[in-house]
Amino acid sequence: MACVFLGLGSNMNAEDNLRLAISELRSQFGELEMSPIYQSAALGFDGDDFLNMVVRLTTEQGPHDLLERFEAIHELAGRVRGPQRHTSRPLDIDLLLYDDLIDSEPPLRLPRRDILEYNFVLRPLAEIAPDHLHPETGKTISCHWANFDAACHPLTRSDVIL
């Protein structure tokens, strides 16, 4: 069984879309470990605030199969992919880590660069997997969080319950 970490985010009907994602993930993968949810301003464009979280699950499915399943969940939430990368979206499910797999070929790109670039990914990941080693750096996730400039993009812990 592979240990998998996912980043979930939404800034369109965010609470409902995160609930949809969690419900679908539970029905397909069983027990999930979930981080707290964080609210943050949109980055790179003007839009409503995002709600973000990290989920851990275990699966026998390969990473490419997971991406297909996540696309189906995106479609359930009404996501339509367009040419713009930085835009509002009903749901975003990103495969952050798949065991210790390193793969730079699209569409995987594992571990996902977002882990070390965005506090809305790194902070919730550090909360549910502080001792997990980043496959490329060999450092713990908590070490990366301790050295991250958290003031660069403020987060607020949300009281949303899924």
What does this structure look like?
With 162 residues, this protein is an alpha+beta fold. The protein has one domain (2-157): Alpha-Beta Plaits (2-Layer Sandwich), CATH 3.30.70. 31% of the residues lie in helices and 20% in strands. It has five helices and six strands; from the N terminus they run βαβββαβαααβ. Strands 1, 2, 3, 4, 5 and 6 form a six-stranded antiparallel β-sheet that branches. The protein is globular, with a radius of gyration of 15 Å. The mean pLDDT is 94.
List keywords for this structure.
162 residues, alpha+beta, Alpha-Beta Plaits, six-stranded antiparallel β-sheet, globular
Outline:
The protein has helices at 14-29, 63-76, 114-117, 119-128, 141-146; strands spanning 2-10, 33-34, 38-40, 50-59, 92-98, 156-157.
Please bin the fraction of helical residues: 25-40%
Shape: globular
Which superfamily, in CATH terms, is the homologous superfamily? 7,8-Dihydro-6-hydroxymethylpterin-pyrophosphokinase HPPK
Mean model confidence by pLDDT: 94
CATH topology: Alpha-Beta Plaits
Strand percentage, roughly? 15-25%
Number of strands: 6
* CATH architectural label: 2-Layer Sandwich
Order of helices and strands: EHEEEHEHHHE
Uncertain parts: none
For the record, the count of structural domains works out to 1
